[in-house]
Amino acid sequence: MNQPNEVIASLPPGLSAIAGNRDLITTPEIAQVFNVASQTVRKNYSLTGEAYGIRPTKIGNRLLWSVAKIADKLRGAL
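Structure (tokenized):
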């Protein structure tokens, strides 16, 4: 049960500020994390099915990105 708290505590500060206490963030928010335009993230997803090595969850028309996987990518784990 302590795992979610450990993940939140170990988030990079910028990602933590954007994500708050959510598990998934939107495409514009992941674009802000990686300092690119949101259209760049959408294009990468369109061409490869992922962006920066992260596959999103599609809910309706929205792409939602896992905060834990983004944190791993920023730490260099992916």
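Residues 70 and 76 are 10 Å apart (CA to CA). The chain has five helices and three strands.
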